[in-house]
Amino acid sequence: MRRAVYPGSFDPVTFGHLDVMARSAALVDELIVGVLNNNTKTPLFSVEERVNILLEATKDITNIRIESFTGLSIDFVKKCDAKFIVRGLRAITDFDYELQMAQTNRIMDQDIDTIFLTTSLEYAYLSSTTVKEVAAYGGDISKFVPPVVVDRIYNKIWERKNNKERL
């Protein structure tokens, strides 16, 4: 069975992420989307919320599984008994970082390869950080994220803003 892992924080998931998921799922028998629970960052959504959003956003892709993980991606890939890591590339700046990670992972386990997919041109500019910034200023994010995420992002930003004002 050809199994791959697409790891990331997906905070929030964007149309760019979903594009990479759909395209990579077509290349393998099973794609596991690994949602990173990174204790060093303060995400907009909890790992449980991100998993639930992804479950809803990917419900039409039959060979996808969504799981959360902590630690190194390479360890999660081994735990999943996968042979490939999927990474999306938007620009040359992504490539520099991703190449270093792929080479590091290859040294850590020679049996696991990294597959790079360039993002579709319509999403090449898109990042989760940009989505959060546009939403924080009240901009329309409906062209960047699936409908299941739009209101959740605005609500989270509104909650955080109100909580800061109370302090």
Automatic annotation (TrEMBL):
Residues involved in substrate binding: 9, 41, 73, 87
Subcellular location: Cytoplasm
Domain Cytidyltransferase-like: 5-133
Top EC category: transferase
Catalytic activity: (R)-4'-phosphopantetheine + ATP + H(+) = 3'-dephospho-CoA + diphosphate
Gene Ontology CC: one annotated term: cytoplasm
Keyword Transferase: yes
Keyword Calcium: no
UniProt keyword annotations, A-Z: ATP-binding, Coenzyme A biosynthesis, Cytoplasm, Magnesium, Nucleotide-binding, Nucleotidyltransferase, Transferase
CDD domains per UniProt: PPAT
Co-factor(s): Mg(2+)
Residue numbers binding ATP: 9-10, 17, 88-90, 98, 123-129
An example Gene Ontology biological process: coenzyme A biosynthetic process
MF term (GO), any: pantetheine-phosphate adenylyltransferase activity
Marked site: Transition state stabilizer: 17
Pathway: Cofactor biosynthesis; coenzyme A biosynthesis; CoA from (R)-pantothenate: step 4/5
One family name in Pfam for this protein: CTP_transf_like
Similarity field: Belongs to the bacterial CoaD family.
NCBIfam families: coaD_prev_kdtB (TIGR01510), cyt_tran_rel (TIGR00125)
Task performed by this protein: Reversibly transfers an adenylyl group from ATP to 4'-phosphopantetheine, yielding dephospho-CoA (dPCoA) and pyrophosphate.
HAMAP family named among the record's database cross-references: PPAT_bact
Subunit structure: Homohexamer.
Protein name: Phosphopantetheine adenylyltransferase
Gene for this chain: coaD
